[in-house]
Amino acid sequence: MAEGLHVYTEKIGHNIRVRVGGFPTHEAADKVRHKLEAQGLHPNVVNLGG
Hints:
The protein has a domain at 7-38. By secondary structure, the protein is of the alpha+beta class. The termini are far apart. It has one helix at residues 26-38, and strands at residues 7-12, 15-20. The chain is globular. A two-stranded antiparallel sheet has the order 1-2.
């Protein structure tokens, strides 16, 4: 990704999930979420850690 974000894909059945991250805080993830929304995307922030 042009902004230097770590992007990877995950195959789920016949679909491809695109993931961006990880981030040190929820606030950092939200900041990127807002940037992606401004580009017309519909991202979700999820916590994959324990």
